[in-house]
Specification:
ten-stranded antiparallel sheet, 30% helix, 29 strands, seven-stranded mixed sheet, 727 residues
Length: 727
């Protein structure tokens, strides 16, 4: 067995020896505590509210937005008057190194579906801080889906302090965040406020301290399609007093707030001189907790102060002229209600004794079911992916229909709203955890394609005979059909496959009553253009045109079979049989024209020395259509193992890179558990060893684990594909 010690840069020869041999168990000595995510999710609520730590140690560097812009969170602890930093870099925004000593972090962060946990110590381990960030984005199965948790606009930050030596210690804890979390440019002017118990806001919970910061303009979508927003308000809430601590709060400059705490343990008064630019003396929202004297004899729950970090975007989405709020607002877009809405939501979360237990149980449930299906490394990857996927969606309230909808952002590649070929690779996590959430994600696309946008105020007619690619650029849906990136076979088959899975899973197609004519057009379109897709773009458009694409043809053929499954649930057996027969006929032609002897080609018209990952074959198995025989899967899998590199199997013969989602899809199809384990290990090694400290990328090089492009995208939900396969 080869060990790499504490280094995160293993010898490449060792990886090659372990990774490219089919059936090899890679780095079997690793334990869950060894896993080093490339970037660690902290406050990840939606595509705009997304703060990560791009380092193994939380106090090595500044925290940042998924796109790389600094979103600075700072954490410090005073022990007997000496200040130690546990969160944030050494060069804070004010360039004031007020707390130069750092706490010792014990291992990498532990990332689960809703929670990230760090452990820090000082004084030879006698003083310990367990720090957790918890966003309760919980999805549970069942058609009567409770979206309240999934749409939670808050994150709980818990500081669990304990002493293990004989000596007692006087301890204070500090947190702050800059206004960077609410601006698209640090020149944006911000204003802040501090609300105490006598603010006149009606609450049904104990006394709290509440801080708020936001821009002065508050114009929805005024950031010119930036990945950063400059409207809405960021809130910080803490209980005034808790078991074993008292809190203080302020809004002042980073230098004054951090410097005062580091020197005295106290906070300065609230700065009343604003508004001013975010980068002018860097205003922060700061909270400190005085825990008093802490000893080893104290109970474990005695010193666990908690913060609630909330964000209210007021308006979340513009759907063809209709402004939609987050679900938690239920259509109330009044900006003056922001304080009362968020105060009550956050206070209820802060004082909900069962919420932490619910999240812990959910995290364990997710981890255990992933572990049972695919082992330890699969559970670690799947938990991280869950957090990234739920951070890419927004649950809104459709006031016209009086029901929730869900939108997904194509993070980092185009910034589009509800891109079909981004929802498609992400869909396994929604299918497994909460199928109804996927249906709610498809409804805005169906409404657009079916010309139902008139009621929203700015209708745009859709007149194409294939499914749309996306709805607009986040957060605005206003796309004309000819502005689409046209992928006719790709998106049409994607939609039919997802709808088919829902039909089979839910045994209900009543919601499709208004869409049968549309689906007929899509089904007939696929029949008419296949089995040879000619020169069409597929989802892997970064590789350029790929005429006669064999993998795209497999998707389209499976899409025809998927439509037969939809019709069968509808009760139209005759037409269902016709579509399934057509799919099987096309599959036989596919096998004949794509055969390269021991595998299948990249394109019909190329030589036998070409190949590609045929990840689209997955859905023939998931839907149990029986279109392609097992020999196709076996031949392809054998070839993949021969073509594998240390960190995965290349997407095709044209380059060394691969896609993480597609790699895990082909792994899910493996009939041999050892083959699935080998591919999972390659994906795990990529995530663990990549030198690029960004939220989990999906397009990377299989020879050295370097990032090629794309970060933080929800397509990593494809890691969950194995969960859709029967035992």
């Amino acid at each position: 067995m080869i060990h790499f010690g504490n280094s995160h840069n293993p010898p490449l020869f060792a990886l090659v020896a372990l990774a490219v041999i089919p059936g090899t168990t890679i780095l079997a000595s690793f334990s869950p505590s060894d896993f080093r995510p490339p970037s660690v999710p902290l406050v990840v609520q939606d595509p705009f509210v997304s703060v990560w730590s791009p380092a193994t140690r939380l106090n090595d560097t500044d925290t940042e937005h998924w796109g790389g812009a600094r979103h600075s969170l700072t954490g410090m602890m005073r022990v007997d008057g000496v200040c130690y930093r546990f969160m944030g870099g050494t060069s804070d925004p004010s360039s004031s190194k007020v707390c130069g000593q750092v706490m010792d972090q014990q291992g990498p962060a532990r990332v689960r579906a809703t929670t990230t946990t760090y452990t820090f110590t000082v004084l030879d381990g006698t003083v310990q801080l367990d720090l957790s960030f918890r966003t309760p984005s919980i999805m549970r199965a069942g058609k009567n889906l409770d979206l309240g948790m999934l749409s939670s606009p808050f994150t709980l930050v818990k500081f669990n302090v304990s002493v293990h030596g004989d000596k007692a210690h006087e301890i204070q804890v500090y947190y702050d965040n800059t206004a960077e979390v609410v601006v698209s440019d640090t020149d944006n002017i911000v204003e802040w406020s501090s609300i105490s118990n006598d603010d006149g806001i009606k609450r049904t919970t104990p006394s709290t301290r509440l801080l708020r910061i936001g821009t002065t303009t508050q114009d929805f979508n005024d950031a010119d399609q930036s990945d950063l927003l400059n409207w809405g308000y960021w809130y910080v809430m803490a209980a005034e007093d808790g078991i074993g601590y008292k809190s203080s709060a302020t809004a002042n400059s980073a230098q004054l707030s951090q410097g005062s705490f580091a020197k005295t343990g106290e906070l300065p008064e609230v700065d009343r001189s604003g508004p001013r630019p975010c980068n002018d003396n860097w205003p922060v929202l700061a909270v400190s907790f005085n825990l008093g004297v802490v000893s080893k004899d104290d109970k474990s729950q005695d010193h666990v102060p908690t913060l609630c970090l909330g964000f209210d975007d007021i308006i979340s989405m513009d759907y063809f002229g209709s402004k939609m709020t987050g679900l938690y607002r239920r259509g109330n877009s009044n900006i003056t209600d922001s304080m009362s809405i968020m105060s009550n939501i956050m206070a209820n979360a802060l004082f909900n004794d069962s919420l932490n237990q619910i999240c812990e149980e959910f995290d364990n449930e997710i981890y255990n079911e992933l572990h049972e299906k695919g082992g330890e490394r699969y559970a670690l990857l799947g938990s991280l992916a869950y957090r990234q996927v739920t951070g890419a969606i927004k649950v809104v309230w459709n006031d016209k229909l009086q029901r929730p909808w869900i939108f997904m952002k194509e993070i980092s590649s185009d910034g589009d709203v509800s891109t079909v070929d981004v929802i498609f690779p992400a869909c396994p996590v929604f299918m497994h955890r909460a199928p109804e959430s996927l249906r709610l994600m498809l409804m805005p696309l169906l409404a657009y394609a079916n010309n139902e946008t008139e009621i929203y105020g700015s209708p745009i007619p859709y007149n194409l005979s294939w499914a749309p690619h996306h709805l607009g650029v986040w957060p605005q849906c206003n796309l004309h059909p000819m502005q689409q990136e046209q992928m006719p076979i790709e998106e049409t088959a994607n939609m039919l496959i997802m709808i088919a899975w829902l039909a089979v899973n839910q045994q209900d197609v009543s919601y499709l009553q208004s869409y049968w004519a549309l689906l007929d057009v899509w089904g007939e379109y696929l029949v008419g253009v296949l089995p040879d897709p000619k020169s069409q773009l597929c989802t892997d458009d970064f590789e350029g045109p790929s005429p006669h694409n064999v993998n795209l043809a497999a998707k389209g053929i499976t899409g025809i079979g998927a439509y037969s499954a939809i019709l069968r649930i509808k009760g139209d057996k005759s037409r269902a049989d016709t579509y399934l027969s057509t799919a099987k006929l096309y599959a036989s032609k596919w096998m004949l024209n794509a055969s390269a002897g021991d595998h299948y080609k990249l394109q019909y018209n190329l030589g036998n020395d070409t190949f590609s990952l045929k990840y689209n074959l997955l859905w023939d198995k998931v839907l149990n259509l029986g279109i392609f025989p097992q020999q196709v899967y076996d031949a392809e899998m054998d070839f993949y193992m021969k073509a594998s590199q240390p960190f995965g199997v290349p997407l095709d013969n044209r380059a060394i890179f691969t896609k993480l989602d597609w790699l895990m899809w082909v792994g899910a199809m493996a009939s041999d558990k050892m083959e699935f384990s080998a591919l999972t290990n390659m994906a795990y090694l990529f995530a663990h060893y990549t030198p690029d400290r960004i939220p989990l990328g999906d397009w990377y090089n299989t020879n050295d684990a370097t990032y090629n492009s794309f970060r933080a995208r929800p397509v990593v939900g494809g890691i969950w594909a194995k969960m859709l396969m029967e035992n």
